[in-house]
Amino acid sequence: MHVKTGDEVLIITGKDKGKRGKIKEAMPKDGRLVVEGLNMIKRHMKQRGPGKPSGIIEREAPIQASNVMLICPSCGRASRTGHRLIEETDHKGRQRKVRFCKACDAVVDK
């Protein structure tokens, strides 16, 4: 998946098109992610034990990863990303694979 938990993204389709948010949870197996404060749905919930609220609860719903674009931390624009190997090695001695912004050619991963 081209985005990870903690990345800032721009929604490019759907009811929240044009809004920005931070990824709260990523589900790579399903190709979906949850963005903080976006794609809100209402659930009618029954109380499930003490301290759990009942009634109509608003919460974030997962959206497809293809419906978001990563916002580059260096240039601040929504851009496509690619992967490349860098000279730095990981703990097993292999080259490290990082994401980079195709607009400004800067490395996104730290």
- Count helical runs: 0
Structural class: mainly beta
Tell me roughly what share of residues is in helical segments: under 10%
The string of secondary-structure elements, in order, is EEEEEEEEEE
**Major sheet size, sense and barrel closure:** 6 strands, antiparallel
CATH class placement of the largest domain: Mainly Beta
| Arrangement of strands in the largest sheet | 6-3-2-1-7-8
User: Which parts are unreliable, with pLDDT below 50 for 5 consecutive residues or more?
Assistant: none
- Mean pLDDT equals 94
Provide structural commentary:
The chain is mainly beta and 110 residues long. The protein has two domains: 1-71, Roll (SH3 type barrels); 74-110, no CATH class. Helices cover 0% and strands 47% of the residues. It is built from no helices and ten strands. It is elongated and about 55 Å long.
